[in-house]
Design a protein that fits this description.
It is a single chain. This protein is of the alpha+beta class and 301 residues long. It has three domains: 2-93, Rossmann fold, CATH 3.40.50; 97-113 and 182-284, D-amino Acid Aminotransferase, Chain A, domain 1; 117-179, Dna Ligase, domain 1, CATH 3.30.1490.20. The chain has helices at residues 13-24, 70-82, 91-98, 100-109, 126-132, 157-169, 227-240, 268-274, 278-289, and strands at residues 2-6, 28-32, 37-40, 47-50, 53-54, 60-63, 86-87, 117-118, 138-142, 151-154, 174-178, 186-193, 196-204, 219-222, 244-252, 255-262. A five-stranded antiparallel β-sheet has the order 14-13-12-15-16, with helices on both faces. The chain has a four-stranded parallel β-sheet with strand order 2-1-6-7, sandwiched between helices. The longest helix has 14 residues, at 227-240.
Length: 301
Amino acid sequence: MRIAILSRNKNLYSTRRLIEAGQSRGHEMHVLDPLRCYMNINAKEPEIHMRGEGLPQYDAVIPRIGASITFYGTAVLRQFEMMGTYPLNESVAISRSRDKLRSLQLLSRKGIGLPVTGFASKPSDIPDLIDMVGGAPLVIKLLEGTQGIGVVLAETRKASESVIEAFMGLNAHFMVQEYIKEAGGADLRCFVIGDKVIAAMKRQAKPGEFRSNLHRGGSATLVKLSPAERATAVKAAKTMGLNVAGVDLLRSNHGPLVMEVNSSPGLEGIETATEKDVALQIITFIEKTAKQHKTRTKGRG
């Protein structure tokens, strides 16, 4: 098969591992920078060009689109879909998961456990917003933040009001969530492929920090999931419409709670912690499922 990886940097761990796994299975692997791709949008023969030439037909495309280029990256992926290329994750599903508020609303509609979440735009609503999520301490998250950036733990009501007022004063979009104290600064990253959790790790925040992101000094260890945690992770990925997802869960006194569903989960942390060849499992999933024009949305949306 001829497989394209949409990635801005072929030297990134996840991209390198996917290239190695694909080549080990005899596939032709090409890394394409989505920002270097440009599109000929027409009714008869949609095309993608790069460096003055039209790209060949690919059997499958693996999107590794960073959050900062979601708009353009999903437009390029949508063009691949229109050309009949099988996407590992569809453009609509990626856009859905990148909108934090929309994704939580979709998950809640399916009855999936979540931290109680509030969203408002007026300063006069702040007192009720804080009460809505159970009062302080609470977590305040910028909707555009990634890798723990723009996430604040406000430990008192006064601090909560100050941070919320500051974000509103900057016209920033944010949400407030209940603080799950019993999670102890840890979360679970569940790596879902198809309808299975194929690997999982526990990420623990460093002392004095509540964000468990590995980029922020958190540590990762192998973890055994409960049946409820596995079922929640798979249901969350399916709700987003993602074939491959990193579903982040918190262990709470009332069951697993979904924090986020990531459409481009990194491979380094999960492969190191679990010693599993996740990249190879992604390639074998593509081998089983990739068929021309097998896109549910056919590039729409």
